[in-house]
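Long-time lurker. I teach an intro course on protein structure, and each term I like to show students one example going from raw sequence to a predicted 3D structure in token notation. This year I'd like something fresh instead of my usual example. Would anyone be willing to generate the tokens for the chain below so I can use it in lecture? Attribution to the forum is fine with me.
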Amino acid sequence: MSAEGTGLFIAFEGGDGAGKSTQSALLAEALRKRGLTVVQTREPGGTEIGEKLRSLVLDHGHGEIDARTEALMYAAARAAHVEQLIRPALARGEAVITDRYIDSSVAYQGIGRDLGTEEIRQLNSWATASLWPDFTVILDVDPVEGRARRAPGGEDRLESEPDTFHAQVRQAFLDAAEAAPERYLVIDARQDVETISEAILRRVDEVFAARRQRAAAVPGGQG
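-- Reply from a regular --
Happy to contribute to a lecture. Here you go:
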């Protein structure tokens, strides 16, 4: 859990073409209508150095990037993202919505690149000083359908990996959710946009309700 001030930290995960950007924007709009200050961001990125690392690790034309270097570049971008953007926003009591976070590295580098899930999880836990989302939305999509949803051409380094690679990544996300269901909301990305958005808002309401219950249970806390 974020446990940073009274802020709310939500991550969106899933394969490319699952609709993460669309749902992130819809959730941000809904939370702003509720009076919350919302920071909408992405990984790698979110900071000046993060965006530069994003270009280096995802764009073609920078030469060969081996698996370990790739993993370290993502972790470095994430460290800056947390220290410079996410943690300060949470401390101010704002809601942070990020398109990808640690689970992407565990799935893509830990499983897809065969570097090991525990090794990648530990690396990124250190990089973020163990900052985890309040909950993570996994938009589940078949890799073939995800590729069909994306605009033709212009695939980045990871998007251009074969469907077998993306199938491993998809399973890694599902395995993570199965292992810790309290931390995840898995949604079939084939559903219509409104149905998905409503399901996410219900989970947000559950998180706020649980916070109120905890506050009420603490002596001197307010419900």
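Some talking points for your students: The two ends are 20 Å apart (CA to CA). The chain is about 55% helix and 15% strand.
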